[in-house]
Amino acid sequence: MHEELFTIAQHYGDNCSNCKEICCANMILDIDRENIKAMSKYLRMQPVEFRRKYTKLYNNLFKEGEIKSLSAMGKKQAKRNSRVLVFNTHPLDSVELSNDQRTRLIDTIEEMSGEKVGNATEEVGFSLCPFYDEKTHMCTVHSVRPTACQQYPFNIVDKETIDIRKVNICVISTNFLRRFQKFVEKADTPNAQKYAQQVKDDIHNGGYSNHYHLPLPIVLFYIDYECKKLGIRTSPKFERISEIALEKWI
User: pLDDT tens digits, residue range 209-240?
Assistant: First the structure.
């Protein structure tokens, strides 16, 4: 479904090419075996060397007892204890940022640490992906980037929920939500109206840190609607899951 989502975005002129935001900062990024295999081959190194240099087990990021205070999603990830990319810590003033970017990064650091960090000074640090080129603002492994990066800013949480990230910052997620909101306003069946009300409530409440949790079935049906309207071919896999979503929508 991500391929269809990005094809729709491209049709409307939404893409990352002119964006100056830093989406690859202050994250915990899952990386699976296939990602490691592809990236290590691209970088001409052995997978074991890549894992040692660039990754850690998720639970090793936390001190003893800290996992108990994680969110439900964090505890779920701790149970998997998957490998994650190790992000490098940089002084906040070491990368060229606009005032808006700097303010948003400070807000992100405060939110993740739970502490106020004050004004942007050399003492304030943030985490940056090791494959992010600070001069070009581009990804140096873009063709083999991790699955989570390929799917960003759309993250499937579970069978019922999709997380839309960076709304009001990312042009792709912001314009997606705007079009999606107009779509759900046309709901005309009891089930559809129930899902539509969930969407309206979440949007009205402002989401969480520019993140919105939306019901996956209604998002799938919306994607199917846009693809048919725009003449976009969908994959057989998407067609199968959208049929299931349609039953819930109706």
Answer: 577 888 888 888 888 889 989 999 888 877 77
The Cα 192–Cα 78 span in angstroms is: 35
Name the token pair of 47.
């997978």
- Amino acid identity for residue 65 in this structure: G
Rounded Cα–Cα distance for residues 192 and 189 (Å): 5
Tens-place pLDDT, residues 75-118:
777 787 788 887 776 665 566 666 676 666 666 555 544 444 44
Question: What letter would DSSP give residue 81?
Answer: T
Does residue 223 come out as left (phi exceeding 0), alpha (psi in the -120 to 50 range) or beta?
A: alpha
Secondary structure class of 56 (helix, strand, coil)? strand
Strands (E), the chain: 55-57, 83-85, 88-91, 125-128, 132-133, 138-139, 154-156, 161-164, 212-215
Amino acid identity for residue 221 in this structure:
F
Closest alpha carbon to 73 in 153, 148, 155, 151: 155
DSSP-based three-state secondary structure for 58: helix
171: Cβ contacts below 8 Å, ≥ 6 apart: 14, 15, 19
Cα–Cα distance, 81 to 100 (Å, whole number): 35
State the Cα–Cα distance between residues 46 and 148, nearest whole angstrom: 22
* All structural domains of the chain with their residue ranges: 154-249
Residue 87 per-residue DSSP state: P
